[in-house]
Specification:
Elements lengths: L5 H9 L5 H13 L17 E2 L5 E5 L7 H4 L7 H12 L20 E5 L12 H17 L5 E5 L1 H11 L12 E3 L5 E5 L4 H4 L6 H19 L4
Parallel strand pairs: 2-3, 2-4, 4-6
Antiparallel strand pairs: 1-3, 5-6
Length: 229
């Protein structure tokens, strides 16, 4: 049997058509397009993870945005949530630039990997439990393949619940911004409010709050890799 790899996982994700509702929606959006992007060719397929294969930090979101990742072909790219995320990663030293507009824009991550619990854009940003479960093995494989990851940052309650469930975290602390837990494999899980417009426009999530999450991730990573840890 061929050993698993991030390259193999990438190809399997991009070629996945397991969920009929998600396939129909992502392709519909890619055909119809938003007026602002009418001249662009949409990706219209599942979105693989992105980043540094030697990452010590894994960032997990819920699902690609219909006119963000589903358009650009890279997770958290081309939408306002991605603007917030990559600015924060840049300030924390994980990204070489603070912007993420398309998959060939020169963005590189160092020490970080970004993915989503569900790899296709869902209608109303709401995957069903069955769709979430169908996609779950991809995240399980990513967690196994990214062997140097020491800290997982989950963006939003659904991503937090997915990571906790797939890693066997029991009991699971109640979700809240900055909540931390130690996963059964020894990695740290840190929860963050999702950088959605619902949270950022209302002040539920501020940039200092978001920066604090990644500063804490740096600290936890350092503690996990120090000789006395």
């Amino acid at each position: 049997m061929t050993p698993d790899s991030l390259e193999r996982l990438h190809d399997e994700v991009v070629g996945c058509s397991a969920c009929p509702r998600l396939v129909a929606w992502r392709e519909h959006v890619a055909r119809e397009r938003r007026a602002a992007f009418a001249e662009e060719e949409y990706w219209g397929r599942p979105i693989p993870g992105f980043g540094d294969p030697a990452a010590e930090l894994l960032v997990v979101g819920l699902a690609p945005a219909a006119h963000g990742g589903n358009r650009t072909g890279r997770v958290f790219t081309g939408d306002r949530s991605g603007d917030w995320l990559y600015r924060a990663l840049h300030r924390a030293g994980y990204a070489n630039q603070p912007t993420s507009v398309h998959r060939d824009d020169g963005l590189r991550l160092t020490g970080a990997w970004v993915c989503a619990a569900v790899r296709c854009a869902p209608p109303a940003n709401a995957p069903t439990p069955a769709e979430r479960d169908t996609c779950a093995p991809y995240l399980v494989r990513e967690l196994a393949l990214l062997q140097q990851v020491r800290v997982v940052v989950a963006l939003g309650n659904l991503a937090y619940a997915s990571v906790a469930r797939l890693t066997g975290l029991r009991p699971r602390p109640r979700f809240g911004h900055g909540v931390e837990a130690r996963l059964p494999d020894g990695r740290s899980l840190v929860a963050s409010y999702h950088p959605s417009q619902q949270n950022t426009f209302t002040g539920t999530l501020t940039e200092p709050m978001f920066d604090a999450v990644f500063s804490r991730a740096r600290q936890l990573t350092s503690e996990a890799t120090s000789p006395t840890a």
